[in-house]
Amino acid sequence: MKPPLKNLNRGGFLFPKTDLRDLTESECHCCNGLEKLMRGIGMKPLVIFGAAFFDVIKLIDAINRHAPTWNLLGFIDDTQEIQGKSFMGYPILGGRERIPELNLQGVYFVNNVHGPRNKKVVADMLLDQGCRIATLIHPGIDMNYVTTGIGCILPDGCVVGSGTRIGNFVTLRLRVLLSHDVKVEDYVFVGPGAIIGGETILKEGAFVGAGATVMLYREVGAGAMVGAGSVVTKDVMAHTTVAGVPARELSEKRG
Fold this sequence. Notes:
The protein is of the alpha/beta class. The protein folds into 2 domains: 115 residues, Rossmann fold (3-Layer(aba) Sandwich); 108 residues, 3 Solenoid (UDP N-Acetylglucosamine Acyltransferase, domain 1). 16% of the residues lie in helices and 27% in strands. It is built from 4 helices and 25 strands. The strands form 6 sheets. It has a 6-stranded mixed β-sheet with strand order 13-16-19-22-24-25, with no helix packed on it. The radius of gyration is 19 Å and the shape is globular.
């Protein structure tokens, strides 16, 4: 049975990451007064595709504390074993088959799957169905003189330099530093604490691991992977994996 699409806002209190359990009837309903209040203040309905990475809920909470924006309804996830359960106190509403129904109700979607390739697959599916795409940027990030595409996730502690251009469906993790005039193409992932030097180019689908440093003026090619803690001092070829200090090529991936 499909859980009803009701708001499950819990006043900013978050449940542990391990909170994955069957929904009770009381969890699938809330008072009509709260829903009317949320509609009245213009909060937009939001569903997260991918029941993982609990920091995205923390990010939504931070945005709503700054200015009430998103009414989180729950998650969509194709993993059948977790459908009908809850994650971080919000219901897993079902798989991708629910997207057309949600889309008709004016719901916005967050693409929260892991890995550039998977993110592109989900992004293409959502865009093909004409879905509304949410971009989540922590209110503490200074985005002056920065351009950003749709579907990006920029959490707490990130620093983005002037002149930086961020593409579509880019995911940064906590405390990423993008220096000035960086170009980040679509579907790029940058792990927590990574530092990207000025005038660097991260090509489509590149993956930069946690704590890595890419020196200024470098290019990380399309689909390339930079290992955690690495220091990139030379350009990285497309579809290769590099790691170490300085970073050296480990393998070539098939495109």
